[in-house]
Design brief:
CATH architecture: 3-Layer(bba) Sandwich
Helix content: 25-40%
Number of helices: 11
CATH topology: FAD/NAD(P)-binding domain
Structural class: alpha+beta
Distance between the termini: 51 Å
Radius of gyration: 22 Å
């Protein structure tokens, strides 16, 4: 085995959460390793705005998350590339007349949030990582083994190329199928939703009006998220959550037939669906770690929790994990506290676990509510949506909560 390289903190996973955490910790006299299984020799971001050049993976970034990206020095780079502010949300029930409208003017805000391609966020954060002399990047070699040194020497990591690392604190930011979480035996509570989500980019006939459109169908919610276009071409990213048994038939359709099905599902709200990019589908599963931390190890973002994408809160919860963990680490570092100390890590867990569980419960509640088909519940659901839409203070509170500023 090669000589073991020691770091104060090793972050496993260089996606949005891992790159953000490394960026937040950089420049503070800490030796940081950022480890990514895939190569980070990323191609340049495409300038073209057409169906084939948008990233099918997008995130709805709240103002709270945007503030963190600004503090990390990444937002200007994202904005200089492309993003689409959404100022309005239209949500309606396919099984009735219930609808609710949210507008940034209701809370005197410039925007409710921003739709950003995931690769643009990662690219901007990795540029900040590259500018930090105290961050060492290891990429292109998957994690092979991960073990906690029982003698108190930290956590050891072995990569497939033979690289051996040791860190006082190991942070798992390696996604929903986290190898670190599994190798170190963190327990989770999880279940399948019985749904898969189809994601792709579509071109629509009419302007999206800087609006997120979401229709709750009996088979699952469908969202059209606005993307930057031009005067003659209008694009949206779609997330269509469907009962698992319905997905394969939709994926098997040719593009013309799929666009027709999509247009019908959204009730033609944006006119004709003129075309679509390649379609992808992924299973939806709720997962929550029983504990986020143990001595010398912490889980963040999807490694700690995954939720239904119907409100786009997953990445925003993950970024707030990052913000809180970085704050606790840096506060401890200023006092000379080892970043892997369990008391320090438990403060992070206390601050994040409750909020994450609250949002997860709310998303599950929404999903369950809109799946109910009994006439009394459908009636109550629609009356409730109309009632909330007419109650200014309650609607303002809901908007602020969704923006992460409530």
């Amino acid at each position: 085995m090669a000589d073991v390289q020691h770091f104060d903190i090793a972050v496993i996973g260089a996606g949005i959460a891992g790159s953000a955490l490394a960026s937040a910790l950089g420049g503070n006299d800490l030796a940081i390793a950022l480890v990514e299984a895939q190569s980070l020799a990323l191609p340049p971001l495409p300038a073209e705005r057409d169906l084939q050049h948008f990233d099918p993976r997008v995130s709805a970034i709240t103002p709270r998350s945007r503030l963190l990206l600004e503090q990390l020095g990444a937002w200007d780079r994202i904005a200089a590339y492309r993003q689409c502010a959404y100022r309005h949300m239209t949500v309606w029930d396919a099984e009735g007349t219930g609808a609710i409208e949210f507008d940034c003017a209701d809370v005197n805000a410039v925007a409710l949030g921003h739709i950003v391609e995931n690769r643009a966020i990662v690219s901007a954060l990795l540029a900040r990582v590259a500018a930090s002399a105290d961050i060492t990047v290891f990429s292109g070699a998957p994690l092979q083994d991960c073990q906690r040194d029982q003698a108190g020497g930290g956590t050891r990591v072995l990569l497939a190329d033979g690289t051996a690392l040791e860190a006082d604190l190991l942070v798992a930011a390696d996604g929903a199928q986290s190898p670190v979480r599994d190798m170190l035996g963190f327990r989770t509570r999880e279940w399948d939703y019985g749904h898969r989500a189809i994601v792709t980019t579509v071109q629509v006939e009419r302007p999206h009006q800087d609006t997120c459109w979401q229709r709750f169908l009996t088979s699952g919610p469908l969202a059209f998220l606005p993307l930057p276009g031009d005067l003659d071409r209008h694009y949206c990213s779609i997330v269509w959550s469907l009962q698992d048994t319905l997905v394969d038939d939709l994926l098997a359709l040719d593009d013309h037939a799929f666009c027709a099905a999509l247009e019908q599902a959204i009730e033609g709200s944006l006119g004709k669906v003129l075309g679509c990019a390649r379609r992808f589908a992924f299973p939806l599963r709720q997962r929550h770690a029983v504990d986020y931390v143990r001595d010398g190890v912490a889980l963040v973002a999807d490694a700690a929790h995954t939720i239904h994408p119907l409100a786009g809160q997953g990445i925003n919860l993950g970024l707030q994990d990052v913000a809180v963990l970085a704050e606790e680490i840096l506060a401890g570092h200023a006092r000379g506290v080892n970043p892997g100390q369990l008391d320090l890590l438990r403060r992070y867990q206390r601050r994040r676990k409750g909020e994450n569980l609250l949002v997860m419960a709310a998303m599950d509640g929404f999903k369950a509510l809109f799946e109910q088909q009994s006439l009394p519940l459908r009636w109550l659901r629609n009356v409730g949506m109309r009632g909330v839409s007419q109650m200014g203070p309650l609607k303002q509170q809901l908007i602020r909560r969704a923006m992460g500023v409530g």
